Amino acid sequence: MERQPDIMIGTPSKIAHLAALIVETDQESPAAAARPKGINFTRPEISFEAVEWVVIDEADVLFDRDYRQTITAILDAVRLARMGSQPDSTEIPIDSKWTSSHSSFNLILTTATIPASLNAYFLERFPNLVRITSPNLHRLPRALQTERVDTAGGNPLASIHKKLVEVFAEGAREAVRSGRTASDSNSQVILFCNRANKATELGAYLENMGLTCLVIDGLERRPSTGLE
Description:
The chain has a domain at 12-125. Helix content is 33%, strand content 4%. It has a two-stranded parallel ribbon with strand order 1-2. It has seven helices and two strands, in the order H-H-E-H-H-E-H-H-H. Pfam families: DEAD.
């Protein structure tokens, strides 16, 4: 790029790709292992020397095993660049402790949930982390109706499929009640999964059960040479 951007928003893999970082991923994580390890650039397209703030949204997901190695590689690359040392793109230190001596830029982590394992990791990795919490974080609008699907003791995928069939059937009945035909129902459902491979697995299962699905995840499946 001719001019470094003032603000950059991107996925971990895209930012690492633009910075020409080669990241050793967790081979036990299908989603992480599936990401391309090669670099298409002969030189980095972005630099981190002027980075002042790094904001990681959905930190509970991005510090999970699917993305943690990429995230920590980016943070260490920013830290070293801000300290005046360009990291070797073939060897980025992973999971080094983040102390006050490393505070060469500002880091903000946002998340709605912090599992016990992630909390322990944050305490180890970021011992000086300042927490800001709100008691209203998970308070839902009163008009929003919530319902839980019990999957205990059975096949979670089958339980999800059963619930979707019920939702679509109710949509068809509502269409008939309003003077349309059942086929006019345009009910659509968005399902969020905590891992890319889980989304792929669920999508394949629902397709096999006769439901049309579109699976969207963060895995790159085609070459890309710039910002999108």
